[in-house]
Amino acid sequence: MKINSELKGFLYIMLADLLWGLSATVAKYLFNKNFSVFDLFQIRVTLSFVILVIYLMATKPALLKVEKKDIPYIIILGIFGLTAVQFFYYYTISETNVATAVFLEYLAPTFILVYGLFFQKEQLSAMKLITVAGAALGGLMIVKGTTGSGISITVTGLITGLCSAITFAFYSIYGKYGLSKYSPWTLLVWGMGSGTVFWLIIKYPWVTLSSRSTSDWLFFIYIAVFATIIPYGFYLIGLKYLHPLSAGIVSNMEPVIASIISYMILGEKLTSLQSVGCALIISSIIFLQYVTRRSYLQLTPGYKKYNICLQILKRITFRR
């Protein structure tokens, strides 16, 4: 039986949600052991890049090739999208809790919608509002209903949480362009590479890794492979088949999956508020299938529009 492209994209992002949902608790555990956010982020990005580049060199070296003219695009996607969202997400976890960080990050579809309205001249419709608002409200209910957790907000955590949502939105929209030309794994490996090189300005990774125990290394490898390489690769594959807004809304299944796993495996109570939140998110995604007959944001095929973003970034960076 042949799976259509929309369903394929949906399944890939669901798998990414599953792995992300399982890994967030590991990150919080390491923060509780007094790991620095900066150190853990650097280890995650650097190890992910090293492991992935070695794997691709051994199996599919052709995927490591990019055209010289596309290097600026890869650098911007890597620093301001792919690695920025990870840093802000981890910082939010350290400032608040996992549930709050997940909720704030998955406000990304709201920013994708705003981008469409203001920059792509999309018209606001009831269908879009219902889908985005339903997913956001469902996430809020899951957080509020989480026993012993709930919303935990600091000013810094709120700012970094919203930054994680904005960079997630940017990564989804901007990454979509490159997928018309490159493999998701090509964008991922060099996006991680860009973040790794950028982070060298702050601290050398071998200094961070030198004093860690064997058990710490096991956690690092888990985070690099199962919290970064595989789920981010799956998300990019899913993004190849779905519109950025659709991909962002489907990503809201992460807290749903985490709640269901906690209930089935750990025996944690699934509260009434959480159940309603899960139902809202699932309903929003089902409703999304009817909406996707039309494009949310009339993105031009290909990724040539990245030149506009590049010029804006140049003006901001080099303004005198």
Layout of helices and strands:
Blueprint: H1 5-32, H2 37-59, H3 71-95, H4 98-105, H5 108-119, H6 126-144, H7 155-178, H8 184-199, H9 205-210, H10 214-241, H11 244-250, H12 253-264, H13 272-291, H14 306-318
Helix pairs in contact: 1-10, 1-12, 2-3, 2-8, 2-10, 3-4, 3-7, 3-8, 4-6, 4-7, 5-7, 5-11, 6-13, 7-11, 12-13
Please characterize this protein's 3D structure.
- It is built from 14 helices and no strands.
- The termini are far apart.
- By secondary structure, the chain is mainly alpha-helical.
- The radius of gyration is 19 Å and the shape is globular.
- The longest helix has 28 residues, at 5-32.
Give a brief description.
75% of the residues lie in helices and 0% in strands. It has 320 residues and is mostly helical. It has one domain.
Q: What are its keywords?
A:
320 residues; mainly alpha; 14 helices; disordered C terminus
Estimated radius of gyration: 19 Å
Strand content: under 5%
Q: Are there runs of 5+ residues with pLDDT below 50, and where?
A: 293-307, 313-320
Q: Average pLDDT across residues?
A: 78
Order of SSEs: HHHHHHHHHHHHHH
Strand segment tally: 0
Helix content: over 70%
* Category by helix and strand content: mainly alpha
Shape: globular
Largest sheet: none
Report the span from N to C terminus. 59 Å
Q: State the domain count.
A: 1
In DSSP terms, counting alpha (H) and pi (I) runs of 4 or more, how many helices? 14
